[in-house]
Design brief:
The chain is of the alpha/beta class. Helices cover 30% and strands 22% of the residues. The longest helix has 18 residues.
């Protein structure tokens, strides 16, 4: 039996931004926003992408969708590398890839009705107009928990949770196979967050598309994801099935992230805090392992050689010189 090909394969993805200064606006530095990221995503799977602010999660999301042009690397959708494609050649793939942004109000045109916003992709791609478009939009509204009579309302007439449902309906309108969720619930109240997350899970079960799900909240990631990738300063340092990652984090940075999660039970044992300070500047990242400046386990090799992702168990990969799969770091 042949192994099923992943829907999305990202290999050595790099995105650098030039820093310019002076009167002549010459390049004086480089921002290493994404610095060699590789992962795969299967059909109907959710990959959670976590890490501190500024680690490059959103840049990865936008680069995968070609909203931002990659510096180098391969982005294969169904085996086809879309990274070098022109805008015209990329157009057919746009229907298969959609995004739900963090701020629903900022991502909606305030001068368009909700129905027109959801129906616009159908017109752009020549899929439906007139009554056929209205029927499709009404169906999408029903799928995300909105009423058809709300199609005539404007974004400011909806609550935050309802606006995010409009964004989800717009993302679903073209029947995508991949949806990137860039912190889709972080701007919502906690009670509304649960509703939106459960809606995303139900829609995935019904339509079998894949999510690349970016979030700060590890509890949300644990709830919705099948696998989790941990990013630090533009690179993935650990990737695993969510159960293995939360039960047995192997990278010191992953352990530190889990140690920072609040626990309601005062008697519960928790990991001791293991890092201090801020994330180093991506303009001048540290040599070797980028995390060595904050890692209490760092050795000389960590300061000079950058570790690659290596197997540390079945489907569990870690980029750490002190954890090559032979054992877990001491707490």
């Amino acid at each position: 039996m042949t192994e099923q090909r992943p829907l999305l394969e990202v290999t050595d993805l790099v995105k650098h931004y030039a820093v310019r200064g002076g009167i002549l606006r010459r390049q004086v530095g480089t921002v290493h926003a994404v610095d060699g990221v590789s992962f795969s995503l299967g059909a109907g799977e959710t990959l959670g992408l976590v890490g501190e602010s500024g680690c490059g999660k959103s840049t990865v999301a936008r680069t995968v969708l070609r909203l931002v042009e990659p510096t180098s690397g391969a982005i294969r959708l169904d085996g086809e590398d879309i990274a070098p494609l022109s805008k015209t050649a990329l157009r057919p793939y746009r229907r298969s890839m959609q995004i739900v942004f963090q701020d629903p109000f900022a991502s909606l045109n305030p001068r368009m009705t909700a129905g027109d916003i959801v129906g616009e992709p159908l017109i752009v791609h020549g899929l439906a107009t007139g009554q056929k478009k209205r029927d499709r939009v009404a169906e999408l509204f029903q799928q995300v928990g909105l009423r058809a009579d709300q199609m005539k309302n404007y974004p400011h007439q909806f609550s935050g949770g309802q606006r995010q449902r409009i964004c989800i309906a717009r993302a679903l309108s073209l029947g995508p196979r991949l949806i990137v969720c860039d912190e889709p619930v972080s701007a919502l109240d906690v009670s509304i967050q649960a509703q939106v997350i459960n809606l995303l899970i139900d829609l995935q079960r019904q339509q079998n598309f894949s999510y690349l799900f970016i979030a700060h909240d590890l509890a949300v990631v644990a709830h919705i994801s099948h696998r989790v990738a941990v990013m630090y300063l533009g690179r993935i340092v650990e990737i695993s099935d969510k159960h293995a990652l939360f039960a047995n984090p192997r990278h010191p940075y992953t352990q530190a992230l889990l140690a920072s999660v609040p626990i309601a039970d005062p008697k519960a044992k928790r990991l001791a805090p293991m890092i201090d300070g801020d994330v180093p500047s991506p303009i001048n990242p540290p040599p070797g392992c980028a995390f060595h400046t904050r890692c209490r386990y760092a050795i000389d090799r960590c300061r000079t050689e950058r570790p690659a992702l290596k197997e540390a168990g079945t489907g569990h990969q870690v980029a750490c010189w002190l954890n090559d799969g032979t054992g877990r770091l001491d707490q």
